[in-house]
Amino acid sequence: MPEHSFDTLRSELLESGIAPRHIRRIIAELDDHLEDLKNEAMAEGRTETEAEFAGLDRIGNQKLIAKQMLDTPEFKTWIYRYPKIARVYLPVAYALLLPAAPVFAGIANPRRVIRWGTALMLSAGVTAAMFLSMQLAIALT
Amino acid sequence: MGQTNPPFMSGVPELLLLRLLEQREMYGYELVKAIKLVTGEAISLGEGVIYPVLHSLERGGALKARKKKVDGRTRVYYSLNAKGRTRLERLQGEWARIQSGVSAALEAPANA
Fold first, then answer.
1. Under an 8 A CB cutoff, do A32 and B59 touch?
2. Is the Cβ pair A36, B5 closer than 8 Å?
3. Measuring CA to CA, which residue among B89, B28, B20 is closest to residue A26?
C-alpha cells in the first residue's frame, strides 16, 4: 500500500493537469470517506489494516475516479484547457511585445526614464569632450 | 458486494444524488449510504466515484457546497439549489421516457 492511500490518484491528477485546488479537495473528501469506512469496518470487529483495505476496496478503482475528473475539462488548469493559447499564442505575443517593453516602462515611470536618459546623454557628452580634447592636444603638439 | 460502474449507469449517479439532496443537505459518505438504502442495494458503485459527480454538479451551479466542522473533522456538505432542482426535473423526465421505452421493448413480442 502506498504511504498515503490516495498518492497514486494525486500524482495521476497532477500529471494530467487537474488544478491543485480540485485535487486537494477531492483527496480531503476521499480521506474523510475512508475514515468513515474504516470506523464502520472496525466497529464490525476488523483490525485497522483490514479496515483500511476494506475501505479502499469500497472507495473503488482510483483510475476510474481520475478518469471522471479528467472528463470534466473545467477541473483542469487553463494551460491544459487552452494549450494552443499557452504554448503558441502567448509566447508569440510576448516575443512581439518585448521590443516595446522600454516604451511601456517609460510610460509607467517617466521620471526614472528621463533621469536615466539624461545621465546617459551626459556621460556620452563627457566621453565625447574627452576624446575631442585628446584629439586637440595631439593636433596641437 | 461487487462494485461495478457499467456504461449504462451513465447519468444514474447524478440523478440519484440530485434526488437525495433535494430532501436535505448531506456529505459524501452519507450520500452513499442513502443511495444504498433507497435503491435496496440494487445499485452498487465504487463509492469514490460520487465525488467527481458532486464537484461537477457544483461547478455547473446545480449544487452548493459548504464546509462544516463535525467532531473535529471538516466535512463538505452539499445542498441543492434552484438550478439543481430544474436539472433534477429534466433528468427525471428523461429517465421516465427511457424507462417507458425500455419497458415497452421488453414487453413487446420478441419477433415484432
1. no
2. no
3. B28
